[in-house]
Design a protein that fits this description.
It is built from 7 helices and 11 strands. The protein is α/β, with parallel strands linked by helices. The chain has a 6-stranded mixed β-sheet with strand order 2-1-3-10-4-11. A 5-stranded mixed β-sheet has the order 7-6-8-5-9. It has 2 domains: about 150 residues, 3-Layer(aba) Sandwich (D-Maltodextrin-Binding Protein, domain 2), CATH 3.40.190.10; about 90 residues, 3-Layer(aba) Sandwich (D-Maltodextrin-Binding Protein, domain 2).
Length: about 270
């Protein structure tokens, strides 16, 4: 390979969500000549990775465990929580233990699986999961799962009971929860990418309050709430406890038939 002067030796196309929660993970990457960022909703990023449209992506963790995929986790940067999330919530007009049918936001695979597990484990309920379009009447929907920035500016005024899935998971397992990780197909050359992603995460965590002030208003977040969200609620490092939380999630997902088998959590 001939390396042109001034050109990066290797470039990466990275799939990433456009939600506020991903901003600290990509701090400075838009100015990195070796990186191209491609934005989409969480549920679509796995498809982009399957198609080879991106080299690596910030994928929902449930997608790691699909049997037709052989992916590796390529960074210790992640999107997770250790308790309340603020942005992964079930809104209901009945008590949580009485919910039978859950209309779900199609933007996330992991959160739907998480809700299914929590209701089976905590309430002994096998939920009927239905898509949520936003056109349903309150009589048609007893509960709705929303994720991301839309949770902050939702219009579900008739649903006055909220269940934060991060808090529920912590109560159930005493472990953190990981929603998304950087992954790439096994065999893809990612030398140099992990360190880039870790440096971006470290820079983003240090400047989280500035990121909240810069991006929060455009995503309809009150700045004070955006600052609390990025600095107090979210966790961005895939440490040993986070890996244990992922392993527990895969174990319960397998137990309840959501995946064919549990997957070992190994960071390349």
């Amino acid at each position: 390979m001939v390396i042109q002067p001034g050109k990066p030796e290797r470039s990466w196309r990275l799939g990433v969500v456009s939600f506020l929660n991903a901003k600290p993970l990509i701090a400075g990457l838009d100015a990195d000549g070796a990186v191209e960022l491609i934005h989409d909703v969480p549920s679509r990023l796995a498809e982009l990775l399957d198609a080879g449209t991106v080299d690596a992506a910030l994928v929902p963790v449930i997608d790691l465990a699909q049997p037709h995929r052989d992916w590796q986790v390529v960074s210790d940067a992640c999107i997770g929580c250790d308790g309340e999330t603020l942005t992964v919530r079930v809104f209901s007009r009945v008590a949580p233990e009485a919910i039978r049918r859950l209309h779900v936001d199609g933007d996330s695979h992991t959160s739907v699986a998480l809700a299914t597990i929590i209701w089976r484990e905590m309430y002994g309920r096998r939920l009927e999961v239905l898509p949520f379009t936003g056109r349903e009447t309150v009589e048609e929907c007893e509960a709705v799962l929303l994720i991301g920035d839309k949770v902050v500016n939702h219009t579900l005024i008739d649903y006055d009971i909220e269940t934060d899935l991060g808090s529920a998971w912590k109560s159930l397992t005493s472990l953190p929860f990981v929603f998304a990780v950087w992954a790439a197909p096994r065999g893809v050359q990612v030398s140099g990418l992990a360190s880039r992603l870790s440096r971006a995460r470290d820079a983003g965590v240090k400047s989280a309050e500035l990121i909240a002030a810069d991006f929060g208003p455009g995503l309809n977040w009150p700045v004070a709430l955006a600052k609390r969200y990025l600095t107090k609620r979210l966790k961005f490092t895939l440490g040993p406890r986070q890996q244990a939380g992922m392993a527990k999630f895969f174990e319960l997902a397998r137990r309840h038939g959501l995946i064919a088998q549990a997957k070992d959590v190994i960071v390349a």
